[in-house]
From TrEMBL:
<protein>
    <submittedName>
        <fullName>Inositol monophosphatase family protein</fullName>
    </submittedName>
</protein>
<dbReference type="Pfam" id="PF00459">
    <property type="entry name" value="Inositol_P"/>
</dbReference>
<dbReference type="InterPro" id="IPR000760">
    <property type="entry name" value="Inositol_monophosphatase-like"/>
</dbReference>
Length: 294
């Protein structure tokens, strides 16, 4: 496996990518074993927000690995919130984002589409990450300028348009559902050729980055740690990532509860503003200005 180093930052990024891959894969055996068993389920905020002890134990293990490898880093995770390094409270430029089991509903139901996501953010920018599929034993991972599936380099979006299809778990969440808006959403989905509703945000984005679909979107359904690892892989393959809403407080510009990832920038330019209008009934945000000119 080769890697072109443009500068010191890229060297650091490749190192972080390797740490992210190792951490994401470290909990795979436990998750695979638990997938075959009946697990006890709790609910954090509502019946739609489940958690299992495997989620918690997996995040604890990942946090241990990251803290050992990068003691200067802050860590934000799905189950245990944000922690700062003890020797530099509030000043860490490196922050890890963890989702130990993205697709917990699938995990509980025995549906084999789940992933573990780990990503590194430096000064508000995602620079490396990994998304591991424990059931297929497959890892999508990336530095700031190259992405792999296991040890094979992924083709760039410019070189490969990918297979038709859009991946979306909750296309109607966040939609103000008048008849006209529902019709437009259906039209948008059909423009991708086929709609798949798999149920793990991080893996959806990674599959777009790998060319297995041409796009993915969510309307208010995702948390930043859900998609951080996938965004790392998507960025490195040259996919277009549009944030369809404001970043949650304390996160960089990459973060959003609503997003669109496509392999075709022209498609993003056409569809991104339409999705945003469906949610807000307002003006197209400034973030789309450069795409509107395409």
């Amino acid at each position: 496996m080769t890697h072109t180093h443009h500068d010191g930052a890229t060297d650091d990024s490749l190192g972080l990518a390797r740490i992210a891959r190792r951490a994401a894969e470290a909990v795979a055996d436990d998750i695979r074993q638990a997938f075959t068993e009946t697990v006890e389920v709790e609910h954090k905020t509502s019946e739609f927000d489940p958690v299992t002890e495997v989620d918690r134990s997996s995040e604890r293990r990942i946090r241990e690995i990251l803290a050992e490898a990068t003691p200067q880093a802050a860590i934000a995770g799905e189950e245990f919130g944000s922690t700062e390094p003890t020797d530099s409270v509030g000043s860490a430029s490196l922050r890890w984002h963890i989702d130990p089991i993205d697709g917990t509903h699938n995990f509980i139901a025995g549906i084999p589409y789940i992933s573990t996501s780990v990503a590194a953010e430096v000064e508000g920018v995602i620079v490396a990450g990994a998304v591991h599929d424990p059931l297929r034993r497959e890892t999508f991972w990336a530095s700031d300028d190259q992405a792999w599936v296991d040890d094979s380099v992924l083709a760039s979006a410019a070189e490969d348009p990918g297979r038709p299809g859009v991946l979306t778990s909750q296309p109607f969440q966040g939609l103000r559902s008048t008849g006209a808006e529902l019709e437009e959403l259906v039209e948008i989905c059909r423009s991708f050729g086929i709609v798949r509703n798999p149920g793990s945000f991080a893996l959806q984005v990674a599959h777009v980055a790998a060319g297995r679909a041409s796009g993915a979107f969510e309307l208010t359904g995702a948390a930043p740690w859900d998609i951080a690892g996938g965004i790392a892989v998507a960025q490195a393959t040259g996919c277009t990532h549009l944030r369809l809403g404001q970043a949650p407080p304390g996160f960089g510009d990459w973060a959003s509860h609503s997003y669109l990832i496509t392999r075709d920038p022209a498609q993003a330019a056409e569809i991104g503003p339409r999705l945003t209008r469906l949610m807000t009934h307002g003006e197209v945000p400034e973030v789309f200005a450069k795409f509107m000119a395409i």
